[in-house]
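Example record used in the benchmark description.
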Amino acid sequence: MYAIDTLAFAKKLRNAGLSEEQADTIAEAHGAAFREAAEHTLATKTDLSETQTILKQDIVAVRAELKQDIDAVRAALKQDISAVRTELKQDIGELRTELKQDIAEVRTELHSSLRTQTFAIIGAVGALMALFQFIG
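Model output (structure tokens):
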């Protein structure tokens, strides 16, 4: 609680030339006004302690909320990563299948081309042999 020395205040007012009744009335009114102002505007140790307790509780609550939010974001990210991983596996599987088909087509074309070239070479060799027999 806050206090003002109204007796000393009244004494100063009497020394300044006011009557005892005036000095006492002013000192009492001033003391009451000071107490009223102090009770409604100044913080006590109890007020500060209560505020500190409330702040600590608020910090704990905010920390818990943030932890929940972080956990929720972490779970959502895990799901997103899993979905992307699944999509990539599917895409890779499709690419493998397409590459195998492309390789098979290239092999078929190469075999066909080699057969054609082999027949052409055999035909050319036969023609050369016939030419050498004709000449020879």
